[in-house]
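Thread: adenosine-5'-monophosphate-propyl ester complex, take 2
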Amino acid sequence: MSNYHIKHLEEYYQVYRKSVRNPEGFWEEIAEEHFLWRKKWDKVLSWDFSKPEVKWFEGAQLNITENCIDRHLATRGEKTAILFEPNNPDEAAQHITYNELYKRVNKFANVLKVQGINKGDRVCIYLPMIPELAVSVLACARIGAIHSVVFAGFSSTALSTRINDSDCKMVLTSDGSYRGAKTIDLKGIVDEALESCPGVKSVLVAKRINTEINMVSGRDAWLQPLLDNASEHCDAELMNAEDPLFILYTSGSTGKPKGMVHTTAGYMVYTAYTFKNVFQYRENDVYWCTADIGWITGHSYIVYGPLVNGATSVMFEGVPSYPDFGRFWDIVQKHKVNQFYTAPTAIRALAKQGAELVEKYDLSSLKVLGSVGEPINEEAWHWYNDNVGKRNSPIVDTWWQTETGGIMISPIPYSTPTKPTYATLPFIGIQPALMDENGDELKDNQVEGRLCIKYPWPSIARTIWGNHQRYKETYFSAYENKYFTGDGALRDEVGYYRITGRVDDVIIVSGHNLGTAPIEDAVNEHPAVAESAIVGFPHDVKGSALYGYVTLKDTGESRDQNNLRKEINQIITESIGPIAKLDKIQFTSGLPKTRSGKIMRRILRKIAQKDTANLGDTSTLLNPEVVQEIMDNVL
Ligand code: PRX
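Output below.
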């Protein structure tokens, strides 16, 4: 028997040692026993971080949907695979069984085929959290099309950039979406985006909010009639282990978003194995991850990881505040959720509403509480532990990234003793390293440095779509022979890791990664703006929020600053989405610069964070006088 399910701390240490001493042997054993392969691999791993190139299970053939669906039908056909909870609590939840999921995915896959989608084609999915989203992801995988899900809160410009970057042929969307009491005109956003996407040949539209929408003839079609006519069987395409499964965009500190490419076999093995252990999932448990499938958390831990394990995965369409801030707990009670996985920003927002809203509900089904996306502060950790978990459900603070595909550092609940704000121990097979400023590895405990990973794991992203050079520069150039995460971390006296945050110009707002450069580009589009710099500052709910310093062109006319602020945020909303709006905008006569003209963000960051005690020596700046002006007018 392989070590697929770890049940206590000694076992963790023993399996961890095994996975590090002989990674290939270890992963081969896991892969052998728990997955459906059409052909076994010739070689478990080949890798070279200097190229960089990583290949797992080369030579193997499989289809991930056979692992997610087909192989469960004999034993779990009538078990709920996806439990859909609609935005409106009065609308009935849908229990989509594995049998039903099989039919829906196969029908959808046949529709894609009829529409001319072939293996390797890219399909952009811009859908709200409705069953069609999960089904379409799996339908793409069924026929070997590469899905590129774009979070349906992104603007039309952000959508078109992503569609064009990976040359998507088709877009899947809906007539609109529900978001609490509001509806959003998704199809309108798609229409606008497609004005600049000549490569998109067809748009399939799911009906959700039943509004009148514009259908472009020859391009757009309603999905349901096509599904009604499609066959319930579609042979799964035989995929090579290293064939791309999906592209998912993430923000970089500069430049356009990076289309991270994940491949098939390694991603499947690692997401399944982490899901089983980090959530200690057992047959008949109901598992709920509140993320959107538009992010990696939803890909790995709403769709693939749970379904490969034959789990019941809740998919929630709505928001935590609708119809009131008790909604999450109402859902936990209603569906007797056993594992609950959410983000610190949600926990902080709910904590603000007081414990009464939690106490109204019976949360006794909960066994494991998860946290992901940003560092969880001590207060939020304790609130979660005391009020939601009643000190009975361990909190798994899971650190990972879009690029890592799966959870990298996390406690194993009921095994690893937790410690507030610590993601604790590396997961099986993960070899972290902390690096100092000189590029040397800090080998002791009680050190702080930049977090790298020394050895490949099965679900590492293989490249950036269309730009391998950027992949190499971003992740493999800072430290020789290591994957650099972009995060800082410290290791305590027993070897537990605490992630301290990004060390680059990525800011995490409400758990969403935002690069400052594209937001600055948007701000600079305003005709009155000369220059801008954006930094993060602490926010009690969002974790971090955005602070913009803006200098204006001297146009001779005076402008109302509040109107300008609104206009700037409107441009950001249009070019990226509302998540990137600036909380504070300070107008200033200049930005502090070095003599070579580089904006000194470090100083701006400290001022925005109201931490001006040690700004350092500003006298060498090109324009030291603006520092005082900025400090005097800080918001
Ligand atoms: O800075 C880390 C932070 O989120 C970044 C990755 O963001 P993204 O690719 O959007 O993936 C988020 C979901 C996996 C990381 O570089 N981060 C993620 N999880 C944690 C975290 N920071 C601290 N603690 C975490 N548990």
